[in-house]
Every structure is written in C-alpha cells, then in structure tokens.
Specification:
about 230 residues; single chain; about 25% helix; nine-stranded mixed sheet; 6 helices; alpha/beta
C-alpha cells in the first residue's frame, strides 16, 4: 500500500499552504485548493455541513437532524442521510477534491451515523476515484469492521480517547487488514495521551503518533514514527 510506513501530518487546522515532504502524508483542511507539492496529499471532507449557518439554523444540504454534540460544538449541520442533502454534500466535496488533484480524502464525523450510512459514503468516494482514510472508527456503534474492511479504506486516523493501539490493531486484523496504517493524533491537553499511546504503539508496525503544538491541528510534531513491516 502507498501509505504504509509513512507518517501523517494532520494539518486540518493549518493554513493549507504546507509544501509537504517526500515520503510523508499531509492532510490539509476543508478549504485547501490543491495538494501539497511534495508527499501524498489528503483532503479533509466532512459528513456534516461544514458551512452550516448555526445562528440561522440553515444550510444547503438539508434536511438536518437535531445535531450531535460535535455538530453543536463546531457550529456544523448534522445532515440527515435519508434526505437529498446527504449525497449533494458528498458529491460536491468529492468532485472538488478530484478536480484539485487529491487522491485521498478523510470523512470526518462518521460516529454520528450508522455504519451502513458511512459505508455508502465510502462507496460514493470510490466512484470519484478517491480512497478514504477512516476517522475514529472505534467510536462508531455497530460492526465497524464493515467500514475499516471496505476495499476503499486506506488507513485510520484516531483522535484522543477514540481508541488504543491494541484496540486498533485488533480492529484492523478483524477487518482482514493487519497492516492497515493507523495514525494517532492529538492537540491541546492530549500531549500526555499521545506519549502514552506512542509507548503502547511502539510494538506495532504501521502506527504513528503526532501532537500539535499550535492549537487544534495547526502543526504535527512526531511522537512516534511508523515502522514498516
């Protein structure tokens, strides 16, 4: 796999101008207009409505659900997967990412939906030739092996308190992908967690850990570099 053994620079809170480095993976934010000049680029995509007007409680991808705690925290709209806005939101993001030259996308906030709904989004990305990085699959209810084991899922991103190295290794093995890359990311008060995770992940292949010293994913400093098989 193209991503195995490479470190992920999770920069969704940065200014989207990272040049990148060869042999690294760089994820840029929702408003990024092109991949980094070096390395492998990943485009942040959102299952929620990123541009939802929380004050007016309106957006372009309705109907909306009441909203999860995460949606309320970030002022985003939790799109109803049974409505027309669900596919519209995904299609517009995937089309934009493809035109911009990305080959990988992250789908954020999957834990707010069913496994079946998220798998359908992964299918949709595949139609655009975009591979998906799974976000926090351990937080999902139901059989998340269907998600991680999907032929179009190329890695996992795990945030603070969303899973341990032992749990993620067990998940990738159960999904039939024992070498699937896993990247643990943290910011703010997550520094001690990141170190604890790095200590536990050191025995595994294809697991990396980074910590952002500049707010919520403004940069990515190494805590543990992935080891190739």
């Amino acid at each position: 796999m193209a991503l195995e053994g490479k470190q992920l620079r999770y920069l969704i809170g940065g200014d989207d101008t990272a040049v990148g480095k060869d042999d690294e993976i760089i994820e840029l934010g929702f408003d990024a207009e092109e991949p980094p000049k070096h390395g492998i680029g990943v485009k942040y995509c959102n299952l929620f409505d990123e541009k939802y007007d929380a004050k007016k409680k309106s957006g372009n991808y309705g109907p909306y659900l009441t909203g999860s705690d995460t949606a309320k925290k970030y002022g985003e709209g939790q799109i109803d997967p049974r409505g027309a806005g669900w596919s519209k939101n995904l299609n517009e993001q995937f089309e934009r990412a493809k035109k911009q030259g990305f080959t990988y996308v992250e789908l954020d906030n999957p834990d707010a939906y069913t496994v079946a709904d998220v798998v359908s989004a992964v299918d949709q990305a595949e139609k655009y030739g975009l591979k998906v990085i799974a976000k926090n699959p351990g937080l999902m209810e139901g059989d998340c092996k269907r998600y991680v084991g999907h032929r179009n899922v190329a890695g996992m991103i795990v945030e603070k308190d969303a899973g341990t190295p032992d749990e993620m290794d067990a998940l990738r093995r159960a999904a039939g992908k024992p070498m699937l890359p896993v990247w643990f990311v943290a910011f703010g008060r997550g520094k001690d967690w990141a170190q604890k995770i790095a200590d536990a992940a050191a025995k595994y292949k294809h697991m990396g850990v980074t910590y952002s010293t500049k707010g919520e994913y403004g940069n990515a400093t190494d805590v543990l570099m992935p080891v190739k098989a």
